[in-house]
């Protein structure tokens, strides 16, 4: 496990900490996933979030109907056009999530040391003594002494809106619980989590399949977040389902690790998934609090070594209602970056929070500061050692490009790619400068019509740390036979100059294929 990914030059000038951070076109190398919802679905708010650094928009289907999310997505498309900022679409499945059904939507007050019954009879109204739930098998899954947690949407841990229950007895299909703390459940959606208990429901539910095959197909989703992934077979099953849905065979699947079962099978899941999301809210209930950080560090390290994007959740919960994060939260964001996270996922903070734009901006600033002291030299050596010898052709080229860029103090790495694999491999070595991934579309056919690939590959890299894609003109091949590809290179350099990353007299490392050979070259720019 990584031990010292913090680089602080001695002696450090404490006064330098107070110097204002410099504004940049790329707010941070670490990406930000924002969940769009009631407080963040207008064109204006989404546009501001994109400008603040959000590069992936998450649509959470554990609540809201297809029409609601479609309206939000149409606003996102308008915002993308007006800001000229690329944004990937992530569909987050509901999965086998247990929910309290409160049809009246009236607040429910629960008093400590009293009892409440959890019943699968959803026709009954929710009261202080009776909570209907959406699962008939709870009474068979739990036993006396088990812990059940109920919280609003993503668990805040706030004692006034979340409640801990202890199973007292099981009566037929009902579960009688002792309330451990007083709380008021207000709002439409409260999720229920049973600590370390397997829920016998499919990971990809019929409702999830319906949403994916309708809303997902219509909008060509880039990433599927598979909630409550527990086994590698869950990923294989989801991939098989997507493969039958036309363009969605290109959709990446990120495993969302939320419980002990997913943690236990983590290595097999990582082999199958395209990326990992650490749902620390649920994990924090299944795991003892003192063990959460250990799993985060160990799991992030494994993702880094395999070059698969790792996303951390639940970092600035308090910004749901406050303009500033707590000291612990600010430190938590920085530690996630130093641990190797590719992206930070904001849930309730942007979905129903009062300050969605400020939250994206604040998290981006913290990430940028943490990146300045990330020990890239140590990380690079560990990554190369982990790959071992002999290296694959692509791995060798990627590591050489990063090594060259650092040695010559290049301002950027430009990588020409069709599949996006070469650019992701370069990003795996965590270069200190941005990697501009020039995705060259390829012409393909399904025997009925011709289409260009590339859009999926470009958007999917928006969740990879340090990778900034641009979609090139399809008339420029990714592989050049002539030994030069000056026109598309000029477009990439102009993009870098316009964004302020590349300046006159800077050095730039270019990685591209020339015929059958892969080439890394260093350019020194003129005025």
Automatic annotation (TrEMBL):
<dbReference type="InterPro" id="IPR036918">
    <property type="entry name" value="Pyrv_Knase_C_sf"/>
</dbReference>
<keyword id="KW-0418">Kinase</keyword>
<keyword id="KW-0067">ATP-binding</keyword>
<comment type="pathway">
    <text>Carbohydrate degradation; glycolysis; pyruvate from D-glyceraldehyde 3-phosphate: step 5/5.</text>
</comment>
<dbReference type="InterPro" id="IPR011037">
    <property type="entry name" value="Pyrv_Knase-like_insert_dom_sf"/>
</dbReference>
<keyword id="KW-0808">Transferase</keyword>
<dbReference type="InterPro" id="IPR015813">
    <property type="entry name" value="Pyrv/PenolPyrv_kinase-like_dom"/>
</dbReference>
<keyword id="KW-0547">Nucleotide-binding</keyword>
<dbReference type="GO" id="GO:0030955">
    <property type="term" value="F:potassium ion binding"/>
</dbReference>
<dbReference type="InterPro" id="IPR040442">
    <property type="entry name" value="Pyrv_kinase-like_dom_sf"/>
</dbReference>
<dbReference type="InterPro" id="IPR015795">
    <property type="entry name" value="Pyrv_Knase_C"/>
</dbReference>
<dbReference type="GO" id="GO:0016301">
    <property type="term" value="F:kinase activity"/>
</dbReference>
<dbReference type="Pfam" id="PF02887">
    <property type="entry name" value="PK_C"/>
</dbReference>
<protein>
    <recommendedName>
        <fullName>Pyruvate kinase</fullName>
        <ecNumber>2.7.1.40</ecNumber>
    </recommendedName>
</protein>
<keyword id="KW-0479">Metal-binding</keyword>
<keyword id="KW-0460">Magnesium</keyword>
<dbReference type="InterPro" id="IPR015793">
    <property type="entry name" value="Pyrv_Knase_brl"/>
</dbReference>
<dbReference type="InterPro" id="IPR001697">
    <property type="entry name" value="Pyr_Knase"/>
</dbReference>
<dbReference type="GO" id="GO:0004743">
    <property type="term" value="F:pyruvate kinase activity"/>
</dbReference>
<dbReference type="InterPro" id="IPR015806">
    <property type="entry name" value="Pyrv_Knase_insert_dom_sf"/>
</dbReference>
<comment type="similarity">
    <text>Belongs to the pyruvate kinase family.</text>
</comment>
<dbReference type="GO" id="GO:0000287">
    <property type="term" value="F:magnesium ion binding"/>
</dbReference>
<dbReference type="Pfam" id="PF00224">
    <property type="entry name" value="PK"/>
</dbReference>
<keyword id="KW-0670">Pyruvate</keyword>
<dbReference type="GO" id="GO:0005524">
    <property type="term" value="F:ATP binding"/>
</dbReference>
<keyword id="KW-0324">Glycolysis</keyword>
């Amino acid at each position: 496990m990584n031990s010292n990914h913090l680089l602080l030059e001695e002696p450090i000038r404490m006064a330098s900490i107070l110097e204002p951070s410099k504004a940049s076109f790329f707010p941070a190398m670490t990406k930000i996933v924002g969940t769009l919802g009631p407080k963040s679905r207008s064109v204006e708010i989404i546009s501001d979030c994109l400008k603040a650094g959000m590069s992936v928009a998450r649509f959470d289907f554990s609540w809201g109907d297809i029409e609601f999310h479609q309206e939000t997505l149409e606003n996102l498309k308008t915002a993308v056009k007006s800001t000229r900022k690329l944004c990937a679409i992530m569909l987050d499945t509901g999965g086998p999530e247990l929910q309290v059904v409160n049809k009246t939507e009236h607040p429910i007050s629960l008093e400590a040391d009293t009892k409440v019954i959890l019943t699968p009879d959803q026709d009954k109204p929710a009261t202080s003594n009776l909570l209907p739930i959406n699962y008939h098998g709870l009474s068979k899954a739990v036993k006396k002494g088990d812990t059940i947690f109920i919280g609003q949407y993503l668990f805040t841990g706030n004692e006034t809106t979340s409640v801990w229950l202890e199973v007292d007895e099981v009566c037929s299909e009902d579960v009688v619980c002792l309330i451990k703390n007083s709380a008021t459940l207000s709002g439409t959606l409260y999720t229920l989590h049973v600590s370390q208990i397997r829920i016998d429901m499919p990971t990809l539910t019929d409702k999830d399949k319906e949403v994916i095959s309708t809303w997902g197909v219509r909008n060509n989703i880039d990433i599927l977040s598979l909630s409550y992934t527990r086994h590698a077979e869950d990923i294989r099953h989801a991939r098989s389902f997507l493969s039958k849905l036309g363009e969605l065979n290109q959709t990446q699947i990120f495993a969302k690790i939320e419980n002990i079962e997913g943690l236990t099978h983590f290595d097999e899941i990582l082999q199958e998934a395209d990326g990992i999301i650490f749902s620390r809210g649920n994990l924090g209930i299944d795991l003892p609090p003192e063990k959460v950080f250990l799993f985060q560090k160990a799991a992030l390290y494994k993702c880094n070594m395999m070059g698969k994007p790792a996303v951390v959740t639940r970092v600035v919960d308090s910004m749901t209602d406050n303009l500033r994060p707590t000291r612990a939260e600010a430190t938590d964001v920085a530690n996630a970056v130093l641990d190797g996270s590719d992206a930070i996922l904001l849930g309730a903070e942007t979905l129903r929070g009062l300050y969605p734009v400020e939250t994206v901006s604040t998290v981006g600033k913290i990430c940028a500061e943490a990146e300045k002291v990330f020990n890239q030299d140590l990380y690079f050596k560990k990554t190369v050692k982990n790959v071992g010898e002999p290296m694959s052709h692509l791995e060798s080229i990627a590591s050489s490009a990063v090594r060259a860029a650092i040695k010559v103090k290049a301002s950027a790495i430009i990588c020409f790619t069709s599949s996006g694999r070469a650019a992701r491999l370069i990003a795996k070595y965590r270069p200190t400068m941005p990697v501009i991934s020039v995705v060259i579309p390829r012409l393909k056919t399904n025997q009925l019509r011709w289409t260009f690939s590339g859009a999926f590959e470009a958007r999917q890299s928006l969740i990879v740390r340090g990778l900034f894609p641009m979609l090139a003109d399809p008339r420029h091949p990714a592989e050049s036979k002539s030994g030069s590809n000056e026109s598309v290179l000029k477009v990439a350099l102009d993009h870098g100059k316009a964004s302020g990353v590349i300046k006159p007299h800077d050095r730039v490392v270019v990685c591209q294929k020339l015929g059958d050979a892969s080439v890394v070259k260093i350019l020194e720019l003129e005025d």
